[in-house]
Amino acid sequence: MTRVVVVGSGIAGLTAALEAREGGADVEVLTKAASDASNTRYAQGGIASVVSSDDSAEAHAEDTLRASGGLADPEAVRALVAGGPIAIAALEVRGVGFDRGADGARLLGREAVHSAPRILHAGGDATGAEIQRGLLAECRARGVRVREGVFAADVVVSGGGVVGIRMIDGGSIAEESADAVVLATGGVGQMYAVTTNPQVATGDGVAIALRAGAAVRDMEFVQFHPTVLAVGEPFLVSEAVRGEGAVLLDEAGERFALEAHPDGELAPRDVVARAIARAMARQDGRPVLLDATALGAAHLARRFPTIDRVVRERGLDWSRAPIPVSPAAHYAMGGAVTDLDGRTTVPGLYAAGETARTGVHGANRLASNSLLEGAVFGARAGRTAAAIGRGDTVSAGVLARRAAAASADGASGAQSVAAPLPTPDDAGRGSCIPQQDQRGPDATGAGDPHGRIVDDTTTVGGDGISIPPTVRPAHRTTASRDAGNVVLPIEMAQPFSRGALQELMWRCAGLSRDAKGLAEAAVAIARWRAAFPMPRTAREHEDRNLLDVAAEIVRAASARTESVGAHWRSDDAADLGQPEPALEAAC
User: Is 269 an annotated catalytic residue?
Assistant: First the structure.
């Protein structure tokens, strides 16, 4: 029987596991924290799919391509939208309940760049939590083993292909054989000082793929969500709120998004995030305001119960007054290059969800296509992985062509990074659960009801509103040390810490980039990686993964000198219009 190991327990990983199981494989899911500690659980807005006769796959594909900055793969986009209705039906068969009206029809919302209402949601704004619940229950019913607290450190490669997985389990390094490994570990949000991602989003899958020699692409494209509540710890305020009619205001009460795009608040996310950054720069870095008062208290509580509860817990009544918001790192469009069935350039290694670069997002993801991608391509990866024991192989020629395609764009082609994991004989002893994060209750976010990071550097302004690093000026940059031809701010010359990396990436490879800042980031990251000790605990492995992926993001961002989508180069001379301000001073 084919043995398939899936790393990650979000929508992509669990869907892959279920499909592999239905394909006759022996399937095991590994997750480093609790089984529901994934980005999927916190997805608010919903899942996009054509399920109405008033909509079409062609329109969904056109919207996806338009949002992508012209860089999405049309073939992958066609596969995504065509697979949408099938994926929705499969989720419902597996017990996921989407919101329906009194007539029994699915309720559909609309978000930015979508030309028609096609966003399905559950529990108002708890779509991800409902999907997570349903898929986990189905895994238990179908005999899929889900092992919590097991950290996948690397895949084992022999003879040019994957033959197993190396993990930290019970405080020890262990290896298990596998015919196929599916990487579905989610995103890289914990690389940035302010993020919507939970604590587990440390880029593990992409780093594992890099060390295995798999091609990685499009890592320069990191999406920043425009509206994160700027009171207390970062908390996402779904784009669906703007889809329902909420507007963005500056401190003077003026709408400003229309200055950036005719679609205003429903323009592509990268455009809205930069419009907010400009407005914040004009008001000394203070957050902008999201005005949802026209929607009324009853509608807000019914349509967005989770957001409504959190907003009110933080002392705000958004039905009566606008709430402060600012951008945060949200989603990585790049990842391990795959074909339409999840195969990477390494035989036996598959990827799905945010870990994968399927080609459907290009330079900017269309709202609510992330859950859809996880469902559609997770299923394809699972089915293909299950078939590997029946001769599902890829010829050397196909692999060569795929690798060449992945590296044809010099801005996005991957480079090999990092030494392999130590063998079980020389590995150290460490906890299989990530160690306690000094900024929060624990490294998995379990002590945080919203799964968001707790930032101990948050300050309080004179108006009583807590100000995250998003709106603080850069600091400690007056003193510097010369590192070759690059002058390093003094904070970059300090020993590595996760917080230092997050601040560095936020300022130098965040919403706005330039050659000088990226060069400084590259030097700092190279120094940290060179001095990084052999990782032994899960926390140390996470840090190494963050450093490996950060190096690739900075490399790709440096190579792509033009602005496109979520990748904004403030030094792009060919760009039209006024220069885009960074959220903080330049590096």
Answer: yes
